[in-house]
Write a structure and sequence with these properties.
- By secondary structure, the protein is an alpha+beta fold.
- It has five domains: 104 residues; 91 residues, Calcium-transporting ATPase, cytoplasmic transduction domain A, CATH 2.70.150; 141 residues, Rossmann fold, CATH 3.40.50.1000; 122 residues, Calcium-transporting ATPase, cytoplasmic domain N; 138 residues.
- The protein contains 28 helices and 22 strands.
- The strands form four sheets. A seven-stranded mixed sheet has the order 10-22-21-20-11-18-19, sandwiched between helices. Strands 2-1-3-9-4-7 form a six-stranded antiparallel sheet, with no helix packed on it. Strands 12-17-16-15-14-13 form a six-stranded antiparallel sheet, sandwiched between helices.
- The radius of gyration is 34 Å and the shape is elongated.
- Its main location: membrane.
- It is found in: Cell membrane; Membrane.
Length: 765
């Protein structure tokens, strides 16, 4: 392709500007002949480059708006209108430079993907382990993969292994693989070191296949037609027809030149790049990097959206969501014992257990005599007690008697498709911890805003099992979902939708998303925490860890494109009027050029409005510190919520006196910790947030939920105070259980709504 490079465009701009200025200086000192040659010289390089690009475009059967400028410059030079030629050349060079600036950010497509690939492997040679390059690996080689290393090639495991497959499958949590199972290249060893036998060479590995998919997608995707060139399809022939008719009827070639000069599509050449660059600048201020103008134009026209799940719609991290416990221990004690032992373990779930305990302010003890079973669990001594923490098979080996709640807990884990960690004390299973990849706090709001911005179909693509995918899909209200998707499957889904004529946005964050990101009309990467390969394959990168910024970018893109079209329409309308005056001889070429420059200024000023996108929160935002403080308060109240749910499940199994005791303790806990928090929110926090939101009473819904929480708490107090010492009767027991379940659901929903609001009002985080 004979398109000029960035440096050629910059050189043309500087040369034509200096030539126009130098010619003007020479002209005013009295040497008109030399000034004409300087102006001619300044126009010739632009003419030559434009001619080459136009010939190449014609060879590809593409319409280029530059052809009118080419005719105008050429005609002006042939007719001796050298100043006019120089002015048009400067305008054309400046338009090229602006457009090049808009596209200069997208030159590193594959660098990070290749950088993520493993470079070396550890191969057994006799009694030694030797580090070799990937190209030296042969099928049948025995390899050592140390903790934290990336698996270099596909292979068969020679022992158990704990693998982080998120880069290829999107699974948020590590998976346990046993001896004989396949380990895929590109996955990371999340546990102890293990041995494997290579079953492929590096060039035939799974990771290398992902790289090839990205390259194939790049080659298949045709470049988008520029907005300016689409208008050229009808504007160029119309202009040539008017100019030719004016010359034919008048016999004066200057009339033809004047028509071409005033028709030189400066609104197309300048206004469109200015509006697009301004839109890109507005996106950058919101933490969204749009790599080129084509991506912004496509973003403005897209109505079909594909999302990866893990790390995009969800946090991508294991988080404690529920605790089951034996009545003799209680939720906090189960978590405290598990976290105390897990302090000595480096497993990702152990880190999640410890983080959850610290969020709740639990005091941990130092473990002793710790023994870890890779991928299964850990055992040790905490405060003189034998503690075992891990998956169910591992923990149940030391606890032959199963409590009544365990089967139901296991069923719930299976239905929800989540991970469970069990805890035993002195051979007795005392509790279970449920972990899940939670929906990001801004995801529901982001999806609502995207639909409001014009997205009509949202599809979730995920490597998760269908049961897990369907649960998340139902919660988020997506229009369709595709589960158990490999990179090639995601790529096929994108290409099938594009083949149906729809403009597609794909949002992802992992290596497994890179082919689909590249194949989509607009690929969007979660750049703040996502894999670098996804960021490099994408057209748009969210530089802050907020999905709702995509909705901001979509609105900015729509506005920028609308302003570009508006500028083009007004500018071309004015040019059309000027063309008629020029055709009838009322505008000589030089005056036409001056008039055209005035039109240029008007449309460029209008196009610059695309940069002045106001803040989505004109009344202010919450600081990062304030948001984190509010989240910490909710974390501290987590044990209170767990106690409500735990008692609702266990109340019917407790003896009468024990039930009365637990109800009184919960009532005291609610009155001393939860209700003061809600009252303080109503009195101190909500008025400030209302000022940030604006409007008459924006916090009415959340305040209404406070009133319902107060009502339920008061009802619990009344029922508890009226209980006899021997405990509640059957009707009262059912009433109390219903009350506790209602309170648990409402408080959790209320906290989730508050956190979503805090996140929406927060600064870039």
């Amino acid at each position: 392709m004979l398109e000029p490079t960035r440096f050629v465009n910059l050189g043309l701009l500087l040369f034509s500007a200096l030539a126009l200025l130098a010619g003007a200086v020479v002209y005013f000192v009295g040497d008109a002949g030399r000034a004409a040659w300087i102006w001619r010289l300044g126009a010739l390089p632009v003419l030559a480059v434009t001619l080459l690009a136009s010939v190449e475009a014609l060879r590809r059967r593409e319409s280029r708006v530059d052809v009118l400028a080419l005719l105008a410059i050429g005609g002006a030079l042939l007719l001796g209108e050298n100043l006019t030629a120089a002015a048009i050349a400067l305008m054309l060079a400046s338009g090229r430079a602006l457009e090049e600036y808009a596209q200069a950010r997208a030159q590193r497509e594959m660098a990070a993907l290749l950088a993520h690939a493993p470079r070396q492997a550890n191969r057994y040679e006799g009694d030694q382990v030797v580090q070799i390059g990937l190209e030296a690996i042969c099928r049948g080689d025995r390899l050592l993969v140390r903790a934290g290393e990336t698996i270099p090639v596909d292979g068969s495991l020679l022992g158990p292994a704990e693998l982080d497959e998120a880069a290829l499958t999107g699974e948020a949590l590590p998976v346990s693989r046993q001896s004989g199972e396949t380990a895929l290249s590109g996955t990371v060893n999340a546990g102890a070191a293990f041995d494997m036998v290579a079953t492929t060479a590096a060039a035939d590995s799974t990771f290398a296949g992902v790289v090839r998919l990205v390259e194939t997608a790049r080659q298949r995707r045709s470049s988008a037609e520029r907005l300016a060139d689409r208008y050229a399809l009808w504007f160029v022939p119309l202009t040539v027809a008017i100019a030719g008719t004016a010359w034919l009827l008048s016999g004066d070639p200057l009339r033809m030149l004047a028509v071409l000069v005033v028709a030189t599509p400066c609104p197309l050449i300048l206004a469109v790049p200015v509006a697009i660059v301004s839109g890109m600048s507005s996106c950058a201020r919101r933490g969204v990097l749009v790599k080129d103008g084509r991506a912004l134009e496509q973003l403005a026209q897209a109505h079909t959206l594909f999302f990866d799940k893990t790390g995009t719609l969800t946090s991508g991290r294991a988080r404690l969501v529920a605790i089951e416990s034996d009545p003799a221990f209680g939720p906090d004690e189960v978590l405290r014992l598990a976290a105390s032992l897990d302090q000595a373990c480096k497993h990702v779930l152990a880190e999640a257990v410890v983080s959850a305990a610290r969020e709740r302010g639990l005091c941990l003890s130092l473990p002793t005599r710790v023994e870890e079973a890779a991928g299964a669990g850990v055992r040790g001594i905490v405060q003189g007690q034998a503690i075992v923490v891990g998956n169910f098979p591992f923990v149940s080996e030391t606890a032959p008697t199963l409590p009544a709640w365990v089967p139901a807990f296991l069923r719930r884990l299976g239905f929800d498709g989540v991970t469970g960690v069990f805890v035993s004390v002195e051979g007795r299973i005392c509790g279970g911890l449920q972990f899940a990849d939670e929906i990001r706090p801004d995801t529901p709001r982001a999806l609502r805003l995207l639909r409001k911005a014009g997205v009509t179909r949202i599809t979730m693509l995920t490597g998760d099992h269908r049961e897990v995918a369907e649960t998340f899909g139902a919660v988020l209200g997506v229009d369709a979902l595709c589960a158990e998707q490999k990179p090639a499957d995601k790529l096929a889904a994108i290409e099938a939708t594009r083949a149906a004529g729809r403009i597609v946005i794909m949002v992802g964050d992992g290596v497994n998303d890179a082919p689909a990101l590249q194949a989509a009309d607009v690929g969007v990467a979660m750049g703040a925490r996502g894999v670098a390969a996804a960021s490099e394959a994408a057209d748009v990168v969210l530089l802050v860890d907020r999905l709702d910024r995509l909705a901001d970018a979509l609105l900015i893109a729509i506005r920028a494109r609308r302003i570009a079209v508006q500028s083009v329409s007004v500018g071309m309308g004015l040019s059309g009027v000027a063309m008629l005056f020029a055709a009838f001889g009322f505008l000589p070429p030089l005056i036409g050029a001056v008039l055209q420059e005035a039109i240029d200024v008007a449309v460029i000023l209008n196009a610059l409005r695309a940069r002045s996108k106001g803040s989505p929160h004109p009344h202010g935002t919450l600081s990062v510190t304030e948001v984190e403080h509010l989240k910490a308060e909710h974390a501290e109240l987590g044990p209170v919520l767990d106690r409500v749910g735990w008692l609702a499940d266990r109340l019917a199994d407790l003896s009468g006196p024990a039930a009365v005791k637990e109800l009184n303790e919960l009532d005291t806990l609610l009155r001393e910790r939860l209700l003061p928090h809600e009252r303080q929110d109503d009195a101190e926090l909500y008025p400030g947030i209302a000022r940030l939101l604006g409007g008459d009473d924006p916090m009415s819904t959340l305040s209404g939920m406070h009133r319902e929480i107060f009502r339920l708490a008061r009802m619990l107090t009344n029922l508890t105070d009226a209980l006899p010492a021997e405990g509640p009767d059957e009707p009262t027991l059912k009433l109390l259980q219903g009350l506790l379940y209602s309170m648990n659901a409402i408080i959790r929903l209320h906290f989730a709504q508050e956190e979503e609001l805090y996140f929406a009002l927060g600064e870039s985080m």
